[in-house]
Design brief:
Layout: H1 2-25, E1 31-34, H2 38-49, E2 54-58, H3 65-71, E3 76-78, H4 84-89, E4 97-100, H5 105-115, E5 122-126, H6 130-136, E6 149-152, H7 154-170, H8 174-179, E7 182-187, H9 189-202, E8 212-216, H10 220-229, E9 238-242, E10 260-264, H11 268-280, E11 289-293, H12 296-303, H13 307-310, E12 314-317, H14 331-351, H15 367-389, H16 395-415, E13 420-421, E14 436-437, H17 448-465
Helix pairs in contact: 7-9, 9-16, 14-15, 15-16, 15-17, 16-17
């Protein structure tokens, strides 16, 4: 009976594999997803739920998530995504995009490198280490004759989306728009850099008033590495490095010290415990204390118990937070970013018909410039919320403040990718290879032409939304 059972299982597996290959050959304009871990599983199911075709490739036959994918009607191929034959069986010739979510950044980079120049669809690969994203984002697939590769740090995306929600919460409060935001971070070492960068990028809501970021980290090496990697960071945020958790000096003092506090420790129980301690110390408004959970199963468990309603701080599923609301990869935001790029190119060509510094076609634009446009598109929504929250008699002054905030956001985008000031306002001092720029200066030092580059997209966007 055991032998018969094994034979039947083998026959079933062969039939299922044959059926899957026939099915994928009929697919057109579908997505190939390589790597079915928790993140890959979540992306594949979201794509499927939105009515789009997806084929999953995973090398682990024993992966317990594969049967779950098959039960949803998602074709699964077991094999190495670095193998061209496996990708061909997944229908790569007719696929509109390939997403690499394997467990190792290096594997995803190899997938992108293998396909660069030979595949006409969109390539998206997960690269979680900030140093690898910085090193390779304009090296693989960039150039006038090659499609750019989109390198995605999903943990960084989760952090940016979280701080976007915080910015959206505070940007309609006149006191915070005037004074800036002060947050507290206690985040595990491997995620800390992404959280600091995301906060610096998204919390620019107060013109030239820089956000304050208090960081609890016992490691002096982390502080030194961050300062070395981002030498211009102090231009866009005030960093306060702490070696111990702050406490109230006077028990009667109930005024919160921080506008928000974020905890993401090495394990979820530690994050919950630290958030609870912070709440008990009244260091922050309890609704603005967040425990970021690394395991979706823990977030699901807490949401189904009385903890979610009775607890005084908020819990977030960090993996779920790395996806967009409308689709997992925020396609609507991509379209807004493409429009911003096209409008910018048209403005430059109107001023100088010979201008050709950047390609007009988004597909051939280096990933660093595409990222900058995505960030600008996201922050325009923040500015719209601020605009709608203020009375009409303050609009002129508000537009000026939003323009200053946009320059701060642009500077944050630059310095959080390692750029620094060139030491001169002369455009010839700019050197992209060395990551030095002549415009990393306070807003009032800019020429009117440069100020209008910040102001015009905001005015156009607000007029279109009004």
């Amino acid at each position: 009976m055991a032998t018969l059972g094994a034979v039947l299982l083998a026959i079933h597996a062969l039939f299922f594999s044959f059926f899957t290959r026939i099915k994928t050959k009929l697919y057109r304009e579908h997505t190939i997803l390589c790597g079915a871990g928790e993140r890959g599983f979540a992306i594949a199911t979201q794509i499927h739920e939105h009515g789009n075709k997806v084929v999953v490739v995973d090398s682990d036959q024993a992966n317990t998530l594969l049967p779950k994918l098959r039960s949803l009607g998602i074709p699964v191929l077991v094999g190495d995504a670095l193998n061209e034959v496996i990708l061909a069986q997944a229908g790569m010739k007719h696929a509109q995009r390939l997403i690499g979510t394997c467990g190792l950044d290096e594997t995803n980079l190899k997938i992108a490198g293998n396909l660069s120049g030979s595949y006409d669809g969109e390539i998206i690969v997960a690269v979680e280490k900030p140093e690898l994203r910085s090193l390779f984002r304009d090296q693989i697939g960039s150039g006038k004759d090659q499609l750019s590769v989109k390198m995605m740090g999903f943990q960084f995306r989760a952090a940016k989306r979280f701080f976007y929600s915080l910015a959206a919460h505070f940007c309609i409060q006149p006191t915070k728009v005037k004074s800036g935001i002060h947050i507290f971070l206690e985040v595990k070492d491997c995620l800390l850099e992404d959280f600091i960068r995301a906060a610096s990028l998204m919390l620019q809501i107060s013109g030239e008033i820089k956000p304050k970021i208090s960081i609890l980290s016992a490691s002096q090496a982390i502080k030194e590495n961050f300062t070395l990697r981002y030498p211009g960071a102090s231009l866009v945020a005030d960093f306060i490095w702490l070696d111990h958790c702050p406490s109230k000096t006077a028990p009667s003092d109930r005024k919160p010290i921080y506008d928000a506090a974020v905890f993401c420790c090495n394990d979820d129980m530690a994050s919950l415990e630290r958030a609870d301690l912070f709440n008990n110390l009244s260091l922050c408004n309890r609704r603005n204390i967040f425990a970021c959970l690394l395991k979706p199963s823990n977030a699901t468990f807490l949401s189904r118990t009385a903890f979610a309603s009775s607890n005084s701080f908020q819990c977030l599923d960090l993996i779920a937070y790395s996806f967009g609301d409308q689709d997992p990869l925020d396609g609507h935001l991509e379209q807004e970013a493409i429009k911003l790029h096209h409008d910018y190119v048209k403005r430059e060509i109107r001023k100088d018909p010979s201008w050709a510094r950047l390609p007009e076609d988004w597909r051939f634009l280096d990933e660093s410039f595409r990222d900058s446009n995505r960030l600008q598109a996201a922050h325009l929504e923040i500015k719209r919320l601020t605009w709608e929250a203020f009375p009409s008699d303050q609009k002129d002054a508000l537009l000026d403040q939003l323009t200053r905030a946009e320059h701060m956001r642009w500077m944050a985008d630059k310095v959080m990718h390692g750029w620094r000031w060139s030491g001169s306002m002369d455009p010839s001092s700019r050197d992209d290879r060395k990551r030095i720029h002549h415009l990393l200066v306070p807003f009032q030092n800019l020429s009117e032409e440069e100020k209008n580059k910040d102001r015009d997209p905001i005015r156009t966007f607000l007029e279109a939304k009004s």
